[in-house]
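Service request form, structural biology core

Requester: graduate student, group of Dr. S.
Request type: structure prediction, single chain
Budget code: on file
Notes: please return the result as structure tokens.

Sequence provided:
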Amino acid sequence: MPYIKKDDRGVLDPFIEDLSRNMAAEPGQLNYVITKLLLKYLKACGLRYKSVNEIMGVLSCVTQEFYRRVVVPYENKKRDENGDVF
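Core staff response, request fulfilled:
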């Protein structure tokens, strides 16, 4: 989960802010940044099942948490605005 301690966020957030200021709103750039971070993590941990499995787990959790916190509320809002299909 992305809910790390505030002190840890304080170390990471300036880098994320700087990076996001220099990115265009392009999915390819977002994919590139995420891929480069994963590759750096993999290099630091070494190519082995444990590190690959950790990366896959993180990506799965990010997907699920993003769906739960962003997509579901958006879809519920659109359902309420436009009417339910079912």
